[in-house]
Every structure is written in C-alpha cells, then in structure tokens.
Amino acid sequence: MRDLRIVFMGTPDFAVATLKTLVENKYNIVGVITAPDKPAGRGRKLHESAVKLYAKSEGLNILQPTNLKNEAFLNELELLNANLQVIVAFRMLPKVVWQMPKYGTFNLHASLLPNYRGAAPINWAIINGETKTGVSTFFIDEKIDTGDMILQEETEIASNENAGSLHDKLMGMGSKLVLKTIALIEKEKASTTPQKEIKDIKTAYKLNKDNCKINWNDSLDNIYNKIRGLSPYPAAWCTLINGNDEIDIKIYAAEKESFIHSKDIGTIEASKNELKVAVTNGYIKIKEIKLPGKRTMDIKSLLNGYTFEANAKML
User: Fold this and answer.
1) 256 with 119, same domain?
2) Any residues with CB less than 8 A from the CB of 122 and at least 6 apart, and which?
3) Over 90: is that where the pLDDT of 42 sits?
4) Do 169 and 66 share a structural domain?
5) pLDDT digits 0-9 by tens, 109-162
6) Number of CB atoms found within 10 A of residue 309's CB
7) Whole-prediction pTM
8) Residue 221: other Cβ atoms inside 10 A
9) Do 13 and 154 fall within a single domain?
10) Within-domain flag for 203
C-alpha cells in the first residue's frame, strides 16, 4: 500500500465536494492550490474561491499562484513533497507541474471523454440534447483533457434537467469516482486505457455572449435545450422588442409546446398567466425571466406588472 501525500487543485463549488470527500476519508492533503482572490460585486471586495473557503475551514495549507510557472511557486510546490496531484475544475497545468509527483497527476472531468473536452461540458451536453453524460478520471498529458483514462461512470440526463441540477448530480458522482481512483493508485492497481479516437468529436467550448444567445429560427427542441443547458448560469438571452423598447433579457426556465401555426417566428403571445414565443412547429412557453435591472421572476409575477404590446416580439 502506497503512503500518499496529495496536492489538490481546484477552484469552484464543483471541486469542493471532492476535496471534502478526501478530507473525510482521512487522506493526507499536504497542499491545496486554488485561484487568487478576485474583486467581485459592487464594492469590489476580494472574493475567495469556494475551495479556499473550505480549505481554510479545515486548516489546510493553501497556495494561490498567479503564474504556475513562477519559480517561487514551483519551489513551494516541490517542498510539499507530494507524490500524487488531484485536479478538479482548475486551469491548464504546465508540464513542470503535472510531471512533478511520483504517482502522477490525474483530473476529474464532467463528461464521458473523449466527448466534451473543454471548459463547459455540463452545459454543452444539455444544449446538444444528449440523453446521457458522466464523469471521467484520467492522467494529465500535454493537451487538454486527452490523457489516458482511469475510470468512467455514466448517468442519464432527464428531459427537463437543467445545467444546475446536472452539475450537482455530477459533482457527487465525481467525488466518488475520484475516491475510487485514488484507492486504485494507493493499492498500485490503477490501469489506464488511451482515449478512443472517434469521428465528429463533440467539444465543450467556453461559453460567451455569442453562443448563449437564443436563435428563435432554430428548432423547438434546440431552443428548449439551450435554455435549460444555460440555466442557472450564465443563462440564455435574447432581445425583446416591445413598442419603443429594445432590451436584452435572460430566460432561465421554459417549456416547449409542439403546435403547427402560421405566426411569424419570435411573435409573443401574452395572457394573464402565460407568455409564449412562436418558433418553428411550436411555442416556447417562458416560465422564468429576468429584465435588465430587475430580479429573476416567474412569468406570473412579470405579467402582473409588465405589459406586452400587440406587436411585441423576440429577436
């Protein structure tokens, strides 16, 4: 049985679940590497990462390098004398870092690799209408999410699931998969397989304003999947034309209704309790929405105080 000295690297909530699992299972965490504190909010106060907050509560040794190739950081990392590094939702590592520990550096990724390599695998699996996804562990190499696989586990994506609920499901699954992976490494039983080379590999591109915009000319299913795949963060958006107003809005929840109609794409139908947008072969029924400067609200709350003109439409 190997005596493991682990360095953990991660930043957001998704990574906290795994770090917490390792602490609760009494693994020797000799260091935690996380992002530097960043100004956030109106007061621009320094914001500590979710991983840092948890690591502080457990009295763990924390490093927050701005440059992973910095000599002072590399010296600090070497002095920790770790023999295994575990990476969950962190940034790309330079070779000098991932090659350092004797037993390697492995990563947890929230997809069924080789599909959905990249920054936003949870969102893109839903946006693309997948019915299953999962979590994978692999040893890091010089490219992004391409290293030899250790373990993989899959789960179904419900037809009404959004990115938030899937994130939480995969977070729990991922922490358990990391635990299994470490146990194999500890017992010298970890075997690896190269990732399959497949045609038309699907990529989890970084989300930006352009790829979060709703195209109302798209199919009913694609629009519905985009809304739930971007909810609750960063949220799908579009432009609302209402009389003389032209504003950008965010849509957090919707339902789809198949229906043959002759209305122009983007036409809005508003009643006392319902807001529908005409799309090809149906309607998108908006359930949660956010107007600029307002809080997110359910559609009944919006319709109580907001009037849609007869010619209102979504662009």
Assistant:
1) no
2) 110, 111, 133, 163, 166, 167, 170
3) no
4) yes
5) 999 999 999 999 999 999 999 999 999 999 999 888 999 999 999 999 999 999
6) 13
7) 0.94
8) 14
9) yes
10) no
CB atoms closer than 10 angstroms to residue 97: 22
The residue behind tokens 């139908």 is 269
Q: Structurally, how many domains does the chain consist of?
A: 2
**Structural element, H or E, at residue 303:** helix 299-305
Average pLDDT, whole number, for the chain?
A: 95
Within a domain: 213: no
Q: d(Cα 312, Cα 263) in Å, to the nearest integer?
A: 13
CA angle 297, 300, 306 (to 5 degrees): 80
Q: Does 142 share its domain with 239?
A: no
Angle, in degrees to the nearest 10, between helices 163-186 and 13-24: 40
Is residue 16 domain-resident?
Answer: yes
The pLDDT score that the predictor gives to residue 310 is 85
Q: What are phi and psi of 125, to 5 degrees?
A: -60, -40
**Do 181 and 233 fall into the same domain?**
no
* Helix, coil or strand: residue 44: coil
CATH number at residue 84: 3.40.50.170
Shared domain for 123 and 35, answered yes or no, is: yes
Q: Assess whether pLDDT exceeds 80 at residue 41.
A: no
